[in-house]
Amino acid sequence: MTNWKDIDQKAKQWIIEAGEKIRHSFDSSLSIQYKSNPNDLVTNMDKEIEQFFISRIQETYPEHRILGEEGYGDEVSSMDGVLWIIDPIDGTMNFVHQQRNFAISIGIYGDGVGYIGLIYDVVHNELYHAFKGEGAFMNDIPLPKLDKVEIEKAILGINPVWVTENPRIDYQLIVPIVKKVRGTRSYGSAALECAYVAAGRLDGYMTMRLAPWDFAAGLVLIEEVGGSISTMTGEKLDILTKTSFFVGEKHLHKHIIEEYLNK
Ligand code: 2AM
Ligand code: CA
Ligand code: CA
Ligand code: CA
Question: What keywords tag this UniProt record (predicted)?
Answer without folding.
Answer: Hydrolase, Magnesium, Metal-binding
